[in-house]
Amino acid sequence: MKKIITRFAPSPTGPLHIGTIRTALFPYLFSVKNKGTFILRIEDTDKERSKKEWEDELIKGLGWLGIKWDEGPFRQSERGDLYEEKIKKLIEDGHAYYCFCTKEEVEAQKQYLMSIGESPVYNGHCRDLPKETVDKYLKEGKPYVIRFKTPVNKIISFNDIIRGKIETNTNTMGDFVIAKDFRNCLFNFTCAVDDMEMKVTHVIRGEDHIPNTPKQILIINALGEKEPEYAHLSLILGTDKKKLSKRTGKTSLSDYIRDGYLPEAILNFIAFLGWNPGTEKEIYTMEELINDFSLEKIQKSPAIFNIDKLDWLNGLYIRKMQIEELTKACIPYITGIKDEPLEYLVKIVSLYQERLKKLSEINELTDYFFKDKLTYEKELLLWKEMSFEDVKKSLEKIYDVILNDKDILEEANKETNRGNILWPLRAALTGKKNSAGPIDIVNVLGKEKSLKRIKEAIELIK
RNA sequence: GGCCCCAUCGUCUAACGGUUAGGACGCCAGAUUUUCAAUCUGGCAAUCAGGGUUCGAUUCCCUGUGGGGUCACCA
């Protein structure tokens, strides 16, 4: 069987989008599963919008997720010679031609055609210009573009692995532009040439490329090769059912990294947006994904990005982490750290491991460990029917218990309701409505600090 | 507007043409509990509409509706 070659071909024109990750993940999984080759190709033919910083972010992001490529990164900006050669060949063979129409003329045509309800395509004005005229215009230095000579009224058909047969009449696409000049080729052309030259067997990409596919097939065929297989992934939508955008939520991977999502959770979540193994298992490592992946099980309909499920998954992966590893991951998020030893931080983080959904939450949850003095309303110390007088008595009692190293729980159980002891203690130690268990906190905070905070609480209600 | 794609709980989804339409997230209730989580138990909740084909349609076909994509000298 032919060796499988897939590619991920992003444009470095902005932050790494969460939807883009999926168009990287699926061809990656497919190629690794089939022991194929996965190529990273940077499509940076748009010199205005392509930036090195975006490429760096892209590569960093893929590394963070654990998506590894076998070949590349290849940059289209470095492949100009190849494109020039191919475009010349197309012109020589009569598959492409110079067009001298101005942008304005073409735009006006398009508007007109749309207004009368027809496909807005180029009218072929320069399609059959006599050679002498072309030479004359070129000599005069008249601005031009190069258009592909699309066959008239022909059905281009391909069998999409995910969607089945897709047919397009060439009349709906017309003679599209493939290059501004020999050194400035456009997307459909460079993409087709590269897929062909790199011997890509499976093009797996977003469904926004479906309309481009027949154009690319035409180009590849005109260059004398057979087109690859195509698989078009549905898009990821925001909660407003529109293409995921900044308006409806965070879209770039860096935002999610900053919030403290784990790569395992992002990967697991993204993989299950539009794919599932057909079983009820849904917690998957990369290894397992590779093992169970198949293009046939990919969903045709678009999926809405549901942050609640990601949060749940992330919490799950956080709970599975080794505590020391989790602590190290949390440290960058804790703003109050001075020179506390790692083992102390480990104790703090372990108090919150099962309460954490995102690493970024650790700061607010544990800030009381890093403050000298807590500020809170004295009402916070009140538990159910207690009066301030009751609270004061409770706190004084706990003070005595801790001072004399007595068992806190045992003492609390002597009360009619142990909340009478435990709630004011918790509030005094943390200054918060919700927290980890007070006895655990005393153990981490230490006797001296705990006593100090209880004393401060007693002062507060005086 | 032309062309193309899509359609099962709120969301992600399962169901060789025959299932009480299953699971997960979320939500609600209960258990546990000093709070919040975590955990466990239970509950609510879906086949877009109308026509066919068939003994039987979530599943196949047609039409409609809805949503999305695309129509660049962007990718």
**Whole-number average pLDDT?**
93
The CATH topology assignment of the largest domain is: Rossmann fold
Kindly state the percentage of residues in helix: 40-55%
**C-alpha termini separation:** 83 Å
Taking the sheet with the most strands, its summary is: 4 strands, antiparallel
Strand content: 5-15%
Features:
single chain; Rossmann fold; Glutamyl-tRNA Synthetase, domain 3; Glutamyl-tRNA Synthetase, domain 2; four-stranded antiparallel sheet; 19 helices; 44% helix; RNA-binding
Describe the structure.
There is one protein chain. By secondary structure, the chain is an alpha/beta fold. The chain folds into five domains: 5-71 and 189-236, HUPs (Rossmann fold); 82-185, Glutamyl-tRNA Synthetase, domain 3 (Alpha-Beta Complex), CATH 3.90.800; 246-320, Orthogonal Bundle (Glutamyl-tRNA Synthetase, domain 2); 322-364, Orthogonal Bundle (Helicase, Ruva Protein, domain 3), CATH 1.10.8; 371-462, Orthogonal Bundle (Arc Repressor Mutant, subunit A). The chain has a four-stranded antiparallel beta sheet with strand order 4-5-8-9. It has a three-stranded parallel beta sheet with strand order 1-2-3, with helices on one face. The protein has a two-stranded antiparallel sheet with strand order 6-7. α12 packs across α13. β2, α2 and β3 (71-75) form a beta-alpha-beta unit. It is 44% helix and 12% strand. It is built from 19 helices and 13 strands. The mean pLDDT is 93. The longest helix is centred in the N-terminal third of the chain and has 16 residues, at 18-33. The structure holds one RNA strand of 75 nucleotides.
